[in-house]
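note to self — DONT lose this again. spent like an hour looking for the file last time. sequence + predicted structure for the chain T wanted, 202 res
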Amino acid sequence: MRKSDHNANRPSTDEIAATIVRVTGRRGAAPVHLWDPPFCGDLDIRIARDGTWYYLGTPIGRPALVELFASVLKREGDRYFLVTPGEKVGITVDDAPFVALDLRAEGEGREQILTFITNLGEETVAGPENPLRLVLDAPGGEPAPYVHVRSGLEALIDRKTFYRLVDLGTEHELDGERHFGVWSGGVFFPFLPVALLDRLAS
C-alpha cells in the first residue's frame, strides 16, 4: 500500500492486495488491534452505505479483493484505515463498513441467539461482545440499526433484516421503564421506550 497524489502513480487494486498478502502473510481477518504502524496518507478507497467498495471512483468488482481489504480494516475513532504491521492508509466509509443482509434466529425469549450474516459472508452473534444499537436520526430520516462485527467495526442492518428483527422483538423493563427491543446472547437490546413507540404509532 502506498499513497500517491497522481493517477499515473497510484497502485492498482492487485498491487495493493499483493502488498497486504506479502506483508501480513495471511488471508482472513488480521489482528489489526495489535498493529500501530505509522500513517502513510490516504487512498482513494470508499465504502458506500450499501457496502460497495470503490477505488478511484470505480466499484471493486472482485469479491476476493474486497474480502482481503476488509481483513485489514481498522477503526480509530471516527476514521477508518487499511493496516499492515508496517503502514496505515486512510480510506472513506460513508456509514458502516459492512451491511447485514440476513439473520438466523435460534431459541426464544432470553435464550434467543441472533446471528447476522454480512455482505462479505462474515457471521456475528449479537450479545455482550457484539451489541446491537438503533440510531433514530440516521441519514435519510429512517431508523438505522447496527450490529458490531469485530474490532469496533459495525454492520448496518438492511431494511428487510431489520423488519425480521422487529418481528422478533418484545418488551422488557429497564430502570423502571418498559422498552421494546430484542434478546440475544442473554442480553436485552432496547430499541425504543414503549411509551415513545405508542406515541409514534398514534
